[in-house]
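Run log, item B.
One chain of 249 residues. Sequence copied directly from the ordering sheet:
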Amino acid sequence: MLSAAKVTFIGDAKTAMLMSLNVDKFNVLANGGDAATYTAYVEDINHNIVPDATVSWRTTMNKLSSGTSKTNSSGKATVKLSGNSVGTVTVTATINNSSMSKSGVKFINVIEDTWYVKSGSSTYTSSAIKGYPDLGFVVASPTTGPTYLEWSPTGTSKVTTPVTLIDDAGQQYTVNLKGNRTSDCSTRPLNAAVGCSSSAGYKAQFTWNINDNKSIPPGHYTGLIHFYGKDWHTAWAFEYRLTMDLTIN
């Protein structure tokens, strides 16, 4: 029995149009190193994939890795956006008379998050800071712990922060935590700055254990873990405001 050979139609660049425009994340650190990647998908008028077609890009803020990029064999063209300006950005892709825009990506210099703790032990790991070869974390009021960077300490950092009982007259207690900086290379104290050759960046990590906090009675508490990612070589710093939502049964 004879079988027909598979026929592949090559898209016509003259009738190419954008079918979709996507981005890999909506929150980007405004440090010039972190980046959002935009992907445009292109087909021709007959819905054939169009390889090697030129897509033009423009942005309302910060810097694109290129003003144009070519589609690959799957009809996809990509570009990266990074920068130091803070705000919400719109990126537009264009080919021939076809354009699409993607809005909503935010460049930020403060990360706010919540750590819900409802068990005897729990670990929080922050989002990564990329683009800096040597970076660590330091705490700020009301949190206590390391306030300056060290190059290559070992072990863990002692970190404390006040928490307030929600369903009482605002009584405060001090939570004891362990703080670390993690990377693909190692886990070190929070304020370690020694570099890692990986491009995955550095993360802050906090560990809660009820055995370190036996003086805190049962209840529902909230408190702020306030810290910064800090570059070893410059004055650059990135703020984290982590709300700890703690329930002790």
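Observations after the first pass:
- The two ends are 73 Å apart (CA to CA).
- The chain has two domains: 13-108, 110-248.
Flagged for discussion on Thursday.
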